Amino acid sequence: DWNKRIEYRPGSGSIPLFPSIHLETCDGPVSSIHTTIELQTNYIGKGCDRETYSEKSLQKLCGASSGAIDLLPSPSTTTNWTAGLLMDSNDMIFKFDGKQGAKIPDGIVPKNLTDQFTITLWMKHGPSPGLRAEKETILCNSDKTEMNRHHYALYVHNCRLVFLLRKDFDQADTFRPAEFHWKLDQICDKEWHYYVVNVEFPVVTLYMDGATYEPYLVTNDWPIHPSHIAMQLTVGACWQGGEVTKPRFAQYFHGSLASLTIRPGKIESQKVISCLQACKEGLDINSLESLGQGIKYHFNPSQSALVMEGDDIENINQALQKVSYINSRQFPTAGVRRLKVSSKVQCFGEDVCISIPDIDAYVMVFQANEPKITITGMDHFARPAAQFESERGVILLPDIRIVSTVTKMEHSVDLREHDRVNKQVVVEEMLHNLDFCDVLVIGAELDPEQECLELDRGEFQGKHLDATNSTAGYSIYGVDSMFSYEQVLRQLRYRNWGTSATSDRKFRVKCSELNGRYTSNEFNLEVNILHSSNSNFMDHVNHMIFQPKFLQSVQHPEGSVSAVHSSVVPSVATMVIIICVSILVLVVTLGVLRLRSARQHGSLGHEGPKDNEMDWDDSALTITVNPMEKYEKPHQTEEESEEEDIDDEEEDTTSAESDDSEEEEEEEEEEEVIVQKGDKQNATRQEQLEWD
Fold first, then answer.
1. Which domain does 255 fall in, by range?
2. Which range is most confident: 423-432, 615-624, 640-649?
């Protein structure tokens, strides 16, 4: 019982291949059972599903020594020597048809590789045509003109891998090891293999697919005498600069190459080499502890083949049910992986007694949802020229955010609508790694004599990141999380100590996952340099235009940035002052209104008793007073008020002729009169509320 098609969705982990399989021998006694499960992945990428990061990023991820030089990079303005080669851009594979070669520009690789260096490459190569095949050059360093001496080279000859190293002449003019030969079947099997040549002169070691191979033949030669002739480093063919009428390429390579690097001064450990060539998919066994006793199993290095042996049918059946397929890539290569299961049964006293047919099946790996990487942040700001000229410069991307989302189609069944299936588009945020982010200069390149981009090396500590800096921009690379990239980018600074000739600068940020398989939007940033003539304009620009964008960035709590607060503090102080002044004006206005209201009530109090003597008061008061008192008090109040008015006029006349001390006394008397008036007015209001 088994399914021919096994479906695998990205992120599923380890899934069993044959959960119900069992072998039957019709009760025939058997002495041993031998079963082989093969996963055929040689047509996927470089032999299996591996990470498709750039070689530099992958070496950083595996902990390799720094300083590796990529000899087959993606074509660009700075690495243009691979532009004319046949290339599969998805997997960074270069195909050589025996007619092409590439010259490495001077200065890319140092002339002196020292006595320790490493060469790494992926190679796919088949048998060479003809009885006596010509040398096929992978890498060659030869004389550029006049002569045809090869200083070091790596080439294939008659399905043998040969490394040539001619040391320069020194005091000891003696024979030295010069050619190292390895004869391996894999060199011409038309399959992908990973080769590492570790040189510790005079010892040279070859690693192929993680296994170590010593050379079967080492030949000696005389050292090369020094000369003034320049050298030419080439890939895919060897440069013949002398002994011919016209310098040309020779000894062309037939096959495919990828990730060809050279690292001067250091060799790699076997642990790093195993990491660099590791497959991310393969066969697995769920719960090794639960395997039955007497079961022997063996994986090949890439875990594409598994052999199991045992003498009990039931134990073999349980072991086969635990065999599974796993793919640890977040974005695996979609497609079919073929499976083949073959078994042999041995009976007592016989070689093979039962013939068991092979099982053919396949794993269908589905395409992962493609992420959409979005970069956001403040895209325009201005600062005084003095800040750009300072020792620390100005932080370019203080609030940059990198977010990745995937769009999914969810299906739901509505029972009320007769089981109708509803489709809904859902956008979800997802986390994954990046492998590089470039901050490029738009327009004229940076002038190294007056401006630069800077980043403290301490920002890379604890991260799988590194960087390269040039006048064209700043490139950060390495396999790490989006959060780690945000942290580093937020510390990138721009300095300009010659601001008088510059008023603005424009930059562009772009990030990638899986060596350009998924790329972000192009985030553009404009920086204005404010000189003293327009310093007054700075406040208007920073507060009126850029403050809202800063406030928007606060919605993301991760990265509160101190560098931007300087442009916001003045506006906060201004707001506090405005609020205080507004409160003061409000208090004064309320005081004036209350004073006017009090005066109006006072004037109404004089006339109110006459007009409203008989007004009905519907309050709950039940006090009864003598009506005669009510008529007497108003008359008395009027007489007193008239007398007080006369007194006021006399006091005013007198105050105009008196000295300062007399004015103070009169003011005190006036205050007493006002108090008396207030008391009488209160009494009048109280009488109006009484029931007649």
1. 55-277
2. 423-432
- The predicted structure's pLDDT at residue 544: 39
Reply yes or no: is the peptide bond before residue 129 cis, omega within 30 of 0: no
- Verify that 256 and 114 share a domain, yes or no: yes
Say if 323 falls within a structural domain. yes
Residue 258, judged by CB atoms within 10 A of its CB (0-12, 13-18, 19+), counts as buried
Q: What is the mean pLDDT of residues 494-506?
A: 89
Please state, as a whole number, how many other Cβ atoms lie within 10 Å of the Cβ of residue 675.
Answer: 10
Which run of H or of E encompasses 389?
A: helix 385-389
Query: What is the helix, strand, coil percentage profile of the chain, to 5?
Result: 25, 35, 35
Q: Cα–Cα distances in Å, from 147 out to 112, 248, 381, 499? A: 20, 12, 59, 52
Neighbours of 574 (CB within 10 A): 12
- With residue 321 as reference, give the H or E element that holds it: helix 313-321
Cβ-Cβ contacts under 8 Å for 620 (sequence gap 6 or more)? none
**pLDDT for res 571:** 53
Closest CA to 26 of 353, 261, 463, 256: 353
Judged against a pLDDT cut of 90, whether residue 328 lies above it is answered with yes
Q: Is residue 150 part of a domain?
A: yes
* 429 to 160, 405, 671: CA distances (angstroms): 51, 4, 75
Please tell me whether residues 16 and 99 are part of one structural domain.
Answer: no
Query: In what helix (H) or strand (E) does residue 476 lie, and over which residues does it extend?
Result: strand 473-481
- Comparing 425 with 489, which gets the higher pLDDT? 489
Beta strands in 236-304 (DSSP E): 238-240, 248-250, 254-264, 281-285, 296-299
- 329-354 tens-digit pLDDT: 999 999 999 999 999 888 876 666 77
SS3 state at 158 = coil
DSSP letter (8 states) at residue 316: H
Shared-domain flag, residues 400 and 495: yes
Angle between the N-to-C axes of helices 627-657 and 569-611, in degrees from 0 to 180, rounded to the nearest 10: 120
* pLDDT above 90 for 282: yes
- Does 201 lie in the same domain as 129? yes
| Domain end among 365, 382, 397 | 365
- Average pLDDT of the segment spanning 602-606: 48
Matching residue, tokens 């320069």: 168
Per-residue pLDDT band at 599 (split at 50, 70, 90): low
Rounded-to-integer distance, Cα 324 and Cα 306, Å: 11
Residue that is last in its domain, among 476, 504, 530: 530
402, β-bridge pairs: 375
Q: Most confidently modeled of 127-131, 558-562, 653-657?
A: 127-131
Reported as type and span, the H/E element at residue 680 is helix 660-688
Higher pLDDT, 615 or 532: 532
Does residue 139 carry a pLDDT above 60? yes
E strand segments, 185-253: 192-200, 203-208, 211-213, 217-221, 231-235, 238-240, 248-250
Nearest to 142 by CA among 35, 40, 224: 224
On whether both 456 and 491 belong to a single domain, the answer is yes
Q: Which two tokens stand for residue 419?
A: 């089981």
CB proximity list for 489: less than 8 A, separation 6 or greater: 397, 400, 437, 439, 476, 509
Pair (265, 285) in one structural domain: no
Mean pLDDT of the region 479-497? 96
CB 104 within 8 A of CB 234: yes
